[in-house]
Hints:
Low-confidence stretches of chain B: none
Helix content of chain A: 55-70%
Order of helices and strands of chain A: HHHH
Structural class of chain A: mainly alpha
Shape of chain A: elongated
Order of helices and strands of chain B: HHHH
Strand content of chain A: under 5%
Mean pLDDT of chain A: 86
Number of strands of chain A: 0
Structural class of chain B: mainly alpha
Largest interface: A-B, 45 and 27 residues
Helix content of chain B: over 70%
Strand content of chain B: under 5%
Distance between the termini of chain B: 60 Å
Number of helices of chain A: 4
Number of strands of chain B: 0
Oligomer: heterodimer
Number of domains of chain B: 1
Amino acid sequence: MSVVVKTIARILLPVILVFGGYVILHGHLTPGGGFQGGAVAASAVALLLVAFGPGSVKKLKAPFSILEDLGGVAFVLLGFLGIGTTFFFNLLAGSGGLFGAAAPIGPNPGVLNTGGTVPLMNWAVGFKVLGGLGAVMVLFGLFGGDDDR
Amino acid sequence: MRRWAVVAAFLIVAGGLLLGGARMRPFGAPRYDLMDRYFNARSQAEVATNNVVTAIVFDYRGYDTLGEATVLFTAVVGVALILRRLKR
Lengths: 149, 88
């Protein structure tokens, strides 16, 4: 692609990744969550692929696959965390530990340290979606050949 | 003959849709809102999340999300399987 696209992509890539991380991190407070944030972050991979060609994302295939597997395993493990009550029971909510603060009842701007297993699951699913969609895009890019148009 | 059949099918479908639209309940007023009110009232106390949608997706209906994640995983595996390079 032209130098204009490459320059704009260089500027936008960190912004897109940060925004995806923000959507995942605030998934339990604001609209969005793991799926949405992961898709936003994966769009950075699409931009990379379009602007710099398939050669630039070639090395990302294995990390994306590992990321997807780890995300899925972490999600299931977090589901099993509450198996004492039921599958996917929110054990950490309101326990006082990590993400364990109790949420204020009623309208409030939101406390980041709330939600129990929900934010952790958001991160797991976010990484899973980023890895999955990223791996799909890398595979599609590599399949088309290495011509840098 | 065929034109009349098309016109008749159009009239029947359009009439059914218009009839259904005329009998529709007002937006945001479902007939059964028991679970809606439960989630809105309890999600902050039980799941400690402000976002009720996330509370449902990752806590009350977490099993459904596991299925969604499985669908994504299957899609990725399918793409990887189709687009793999055969080693000779």
